[in-house]
Structure formats: structure tokens, C-alpha cells
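Box 3.1 A note on notation
Throughout this textbook, protein chains are presented in two layers. The first layer is the amino acid sequence; the second is a C-alpha cell string describing backbone geometry. Keep the layers aligned when reading.
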Amino acid sequence: MKKILLICLVCLTTLSLFAQRRIAVMEFKAGVNLYQDDVTGLSAIFVTAFQPTGYTLVERSQINMALRELHFQQSSLTEEQMLEVGHFLGASKIVVGDISMIMGQYNVDVRVLNVESGTIDVKAGSEFQTSAYRKSMTALAEELAAKLSAKTAKNTGASSSNQGKPYIIYDYLKVFPEDLGRFNSSPSTVIANINQKAQYGYNTWRLPTRAELALIAEQGIIETSSGYMASDGSQSGRVRLVTDRETARVLAQQNAAAAAQARGEQYAYLQQIREEGYVDLGLPSGTWWKSRNENGTYKYDDAISRFGNKLPNKRQYNELMKSCTWTWNGNGFTITGPNGNTIFFSTEGQLNGHQGGFYMSSTLEEGNVVSWVCYPKERKGFLNFLNKYSSLSVRLVRIP
């Protein structure tokens, strides 16, 4: 009965919105160094910002109902099953994506699949620091929506493509061959991504002025300049980018200065955390480990309150054991990272009559703190579970 009701709902929605294609955004899949729970929030941010012109977004509740009716599991969905979900929902396109954590950065790849053919219509990708997740996921959603809107307009004849080459007006103004779609505010991040990729041979694309929009309309490239966003006028509407020689010269100077400043700031930041005692071991996650323990020992709640996200978690200890070379030297281990840098963990200390170095993690499992034990008799480190009120040594981490 649920299946019949869902099919009826899809059919009614499709008939009433025959001019609006339906598109479903599937929950992104966790890739390297991430669990599925880690990417759920990122998927939600993407969906909120993804608003392609000419498409109606399928509600998440409808996608979940389709998964139940088709007896599919979200955690193990294949691409073929996702296409089947798209068919079931009456969607012409589905959006799929993968998110990994590589060298301390999120790596996101998204693509729009044609439900009928299974081919990729458009795709986009982004790399960004964890602290910039909201802004970066929003920008990625806007970029993919703009690409899809432009391709749809091109295929339906709503926008002239000029065979994929910029229009040139009076040898002065170059005009982007496609509309980017409609935006409620200036799509600065989308434009920055286009310029980073130097699309159509230029990396100085910008919003036109009102006078330039009038020129573009006069040449028949757009039907009318009303409804388009201008740098000196409306900050909402459709977007068609332009560039010119003077802009290219000025922006090149600005970009060079900004790049030099960014390099200087990054160098100063890394130098600062080196001076604080953190060492880059070349680990896949980008984690830097401190070269020495914090003074004294701490109980779990005290450590969380004092050190916060600088406490290593279970996965970071596992990475240290699996990715590094361990050398026993009498009272502890010298741990050599993939890049040749080293840190030292001592086995000095005692807990409940057991000799060994016991180190705190931020991970709790069934009320117990996951601890890392540097044990002399075993000549290796291993994970253990201790009461959260145990006093343990603390070694901190950072992800620049």
C-alpha cells in the first residue's frame, strides 16, 4: 500500500510540474578516513544550497521511503541502485557524491547522473580545510547547480552556447558562453572556482556592469539585460560573466599579492605550531603529534575540559600504530613517520600496579575511555579500555 501511495504521489507531482524536472540528491558516501556519520551533516549543507534553475528537488522523506520500499540499505547503496531509486521517484537526474579526508582536508567529488542513461551530465569537486566546511560545501553546491542549469539551458535552446567559445564584442569585451543560472546574491565563490580552472582560457571572469549588459543584449547574446545581475546594479538575478584586458591586468597583480600573503601566513602558522612542539610525521590524515607529554596526569573530564579537540582520538592512535615505524630503545619507543620525522613515547609510569605508559584519548566506548598503552614487555603499543576516572598521561595533536 505504501508503495502504491508513493507511486501515485510521484505521478501527481510529475504531472503538475511537467515543466520542472525532478532531481534527487542522494546522501554522500564516506570515503578514505571517514565514517558515514561524518558526512551526513556535510550532505545536508549541500542539499540546502543546491537549487538548480529548472529543477524541483525531491524531499529527503520521499527518498527514504523509496529506499524502504525497494529494500535498499543507505550504507551499502551502489550507483546502479541509486539510479533505480531515481526511476522510482520519477526523477530525471540524481546527484551522488563521495567525501574523503586526505592530508587533513576534506576532498569532495559530486556528479549529476542522467537516470535514463546512467551517464554523467556534469560534475564538480573541491578540497578544503575542516574549519571551512560550511562555506565550501555551499560553494560546491552553487557551482554544480550553475553547471547543471547552464547545460540544461543550452540543451533546450534557452541560451546560446557559441560552440563553447566566449563571445567577443568590439575586441574589448569577452562574454562567457553560458548563463550560470539565477542567484539571490553575488556568486563570488562560484566565480572564483571558474577562474581557478581558467574556463574557456581566461581566469578573470567577473560580473558585468549595467552598460556592459546592455551591450551584450544589443548583440543578441541575451534577449534583454533586465533580470540579469550587474556589478553596479541588481545583486540578484541571472548571471552571465564577462572579462576584459584591463581587468585581467589588475586581477593578475592582486592575485599575485594575495598568493604571496597567503604563503607567508601559512608559513608563519606552521612555524608557530612547530615552536609549540608539534611534529609533522607525514601521516595520511595530516595529524601533527606533539613531541612531549603534558605535565602531570589527567582524568578524562579534566583532560577534555582543558585540552578539547587537541586530545587524539582512537583513529589517530590507530594511524600512529599502522603508518609509522617503531624502534624500542630501553625505556620507550622512537616512532618514525612516513616522512622520516620522529617523536618519542616513554613507558615510564604506572597504573594499578602495571608498568607502562598509559595515554589518554578523546574516545569513549560504553562509558570507558579508549587508552593507548606503550608497554615494554610487548615491545609495541596497543589500545585498551580504562575507567574514565583513571589518571593518564596526555599527548596532544593538531591538524593544521
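The chain has three domains: 1-158, 160-275, 278-398. The domain at 1-158 is CATH 3.40.50.10070 (Rossmann fold).
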